[in-house]
Amino acid sequence: MLPSRFDYVAAHSIEEALAAKAQGDEDTRFLAGGQSLLPMMKLRLAVPSKLIDINRIDGLGGVERRNGHLRIGAAARHADVAASDAAFGAVAAAAPWISDPLVRNLGTLCGSVAHCDPEGDWNSVLLATGADVVARGPGGERSIPIAEFVQDMFANSLASDEMVTEVRVPVPSGRSGGSYVKLERKIGDYATVAVAGHLELGDDGRIAAAGLALTSVAPINLKVAEAEALLVGNQPGPELFAEAAELAAAAADPRDDVRGTARWKRQVVRTFTGRALAAAADQALKG
Amino acid sequence: MTAHTTTPPEIGGIGHSLKRVEDARLIEGQGNFLDDISLPGMLYMALVRSPVAHARINGIDIEAAMAVDGVLAVVTGELMAAHNLAWMPTLSGDTQAVLATDKVRYQGQEVAAVIATDPYIAADGAELVDVDYDVLPAVVTPQQSLDPDTVVIRDEKEGQTDNLAYEWECGDDAATAEAFARADRVVSIQTHYPRSHPAPLETCGIVADVNPVTGQATIYMTSQAPHAHRTLFAMVAGLPEQNIRIISPDIGGGFGNKVPIYPGYVVATAASLVIGKPVKWVETRTGNLISTGFGRDYHMSGELALTDEGRILGLRVDVLSDQGAFYSDAQPSRYRAGLFHVVTGSYDFPAAHITCRGAFTNKAPGGVAYRCSFRITEASYLIERLVQTAAYELGIDPADLRFRNFIQPEQFPYETPTGFVYDSGDYPTALRKALDAVGYEQLREEQAEARAQGRLIGIGIAHFTEAVGAGPAHTYDIAGLKMIDSAELRVHPTGKAILKLGVKTQGQGHETTFAQIVAEQLGIPAYDIKVEHGDTDHTPYGLGTYASRSTPVGGAATAVVARKLADKARHIAAHLLEAAVEDIEMAAGKLHVKGSPDQAVTIQDVALAAYTNLPEGMEYGLEDVTYYNPPNLTFPYGSYIVVVEVDPDTGVWKVERMVALDDCGVRINPMIVEGQIHGGLTEGFAMSSMQWITFDEDGNCIGSNFMDYLVPTAWETPRFELLETVVPSPHHPIGAKGVGESATVGSPAAYVNAVVDALAHLGVRNIDMPVLPDRVWEAIDSAAS
Ligand SMILES: Cc1cc2nc3c(=O)[nH]c(=O)nc-3n(C[C@H](O)[C@H](O)[C@H](O)COP(=O)(O)OP(=O)(O)OC[C@H]3O[C@@H](n4cnc5c(N)ncnc54)[C@H](O)[C@@H]3O)c2cc1C
To answer: Which ipTM value was assigned to this complex?
Structure first.
């Protein structure tokens, strides 16, 4: 449980961090909350040559509404999101479900997004809410839709000289609601199954936009486009949600493991999709 | 709860919930744990462990590791063999590899050790030791293991031609067969009590400091049994016993895990001996979880013979135990399956027969009594699951079936068909009280209403009887060392005292509880009594703390030695008061002449007199030592009731109520007793719901860190409602029975019975632990189809 030798540098600006990354070799890594990276280093599953600590960069934190979106800075902790009045819908619902208070006090949303662990919660939430990831590199800034950002298990679409500076979640203009329903074996555990739901209602009461994504039941966080398509244009209700739940269960690709059988996980996806959509609709109607 | 006390709070004898003496230093970070110990010139050791479950070792290349700056030595099995230390005896008469020479037999087995100037360098070196393995098929179940075509795991063992570790039987086969022939009904259950790990927060470790000139070996070690370990070190390593001093410092939890001697201890000691410098080894979390003493892993089939009226006539049990690669059960009895034959439980019936076989597999060795007397948890679980099943099959309420079969209060001392003599108890009163507390009859009505609405509520009962406090010398020993224990008490001239124990706390609160036993007998305030334990040079001999034996054996020794001093104190008081000894009465720290309470001296006056003013011919001082050989085990019991609600759509279950009535005889410190029960109920919840070690088909251990091995925290642990009855042990000097393990033993069946009860109307009879939600949902789903 002791990491191997590594170098460490604390960056004080984004420019400094990017310069350090450009100078480093391919095993140079950014260090955010360290809640994924440090455990891997202790198990020697990650053996970085150098860590670039981004925690001391001014202005990198913050959870706030700006220009029609919710901005979550790269240094914002899970706990900051959980405590924020600006967070809404599925984002607000998911924050208290990230691990335990210890991890939430250090780990960052952007670090989790960059890490692309299919058992991580945030990427499902961002897929359901249609968020963008903002990256900075030597050539400037670009905004990457989350669906493009998540490439594969533990693989994102950042170039080797880029870092994530923030995440932007669009704030719906009309009535909307979101939810995150998670089954974990104990507090602090990753999801056995989790479902992120997001619904926007039109003036006619029909669903104008829908987002649905699954955690821990596929090699990546899974956006269930078929179910989203089914929902849009229809009146929210138990039968519609049950149909969407069937599509989600069919789309899920879980495995048998210590957390349970694949057959059962599919059943949980079915049940939780129904519950997630009902909760989202409920919030949209009340809000 | 108001406890019965005979001393005022200032003295704090039996029945007072004194705050724990040890807590201040532990909470304020002033404890001294193994890893806090640092000696000048100390070196660090890291172990190289096998990544595979079964393989032949072709060779070990240490060159790259030796080339690391700061690595001083790489120890292999070959080097240990040169000192005749490649193998060591186990506590069950088998041998265990210290460092593998021929084969590795489980994932995580110790293969080499790297000694370096700093722990990081030792870890770097360990990574570079290059072992050439020829991988063999892994044997991961005992059923597979006993198949005649399976490869022999212990091929180094002379005469071993299969994978059978032991066979044992107990009870009366013929009488049991006769009972089954008479039965109206036979009810059976097959269940696996899964492998669990005690997972103490502090892993195992050692600082071995062998002086190259004097040969004095000072060994700091995470040991639940320092004296026994000293003797075993002397026997195995051939060191003269007077040169070995084992110091077991503050221990961050043991739960049975710190009873065995592990390879790391042996290698570190040998390395210190050879190098002539102190060597520290602190196990990693993964090392602890994958290689050290696990608990359980019992595949059990039980059958009950019953009459239609629900009277039990007989019990038949067959066990297949998964021993792992070496048969190294750490248990104190002469019976192969420990105290498993307590499986007849709280019930009165004439016949039982038990057969057990142990099988070698490619898994870590070391069956330990994880917070129980050895194998009692498995036994208690089986009988309570069986009785519950019988209730459903006979259509009798599970509480009622228990009442119909309980051993009655007037039957004590009660001899069971397997040979235990239960000391005391009143089971019907205990169960009735627990049922009333939970509101049993009304809950059954609510359950029926809920079922009608499609909700699943379950009520689970377990009424367990434990056998603890090993034990009488005629039956209980470890490596021939009788399971006696000791206490030495010295009262100083100012009336303060030091109590030295052969047992060793790992968090149970000995420093408080044992002082209270002395306070009760002598009237010296408990806080004026220092309790010392864990250092073999400074304490009298004892077999250590496990099997709930500290209070039954060490506590008895403490009471007896304090009574010896009370007797001497009476003589001194008689001298001081110029009265006859027979006329001296002693209560709450005062010794007075019968009938004239004003004619009195205090125990402190007597203590001073013991060193200043004695009657003619009396030896100076006020101290003594006692070795206690208990006449019998003690038999704590309890009635636990759990109420759960199960989500039919996901199988997730939640504990709504947990009512636990314990009768552990006289409670010395009620607060500490309740703390022990809370801890045990939590571990019972853990094992029933989430905490297990399992393996994939290649023998890879799943559960090698706290992300995979789930230990519940305060978040998921249910609320407990505690109750008590007090039926003292008739043979224990203060009537105490021991309580450290009752709740771990008794509660798993209550939780599981509750979940099964929620599904009983669907025909579900068994779900193996851990009762994971997928298992629950699959049971509902297959019952439906
Ligand atoms: C016990 C435990 C339980 C957990 N349970 C959960 C859970 O239930 N749900 C869940 O979602 N997560 C869980 N996590 C993970 C946790 O959320 C992490 O905080 C998160 O995955 C990573 O964020 P971090 O800030 O800690 O990143 P770090 O560990 O510092 O970094 C993770 C990776 O992302 C890279 N990275 C970090 N920041 C950036 C950036 N700005 N730009 C580019 N790359 C970057 C790093 O180089 C590294 O490769 C758990 C972690 C632990 C230790």
So the answer is: 0.96
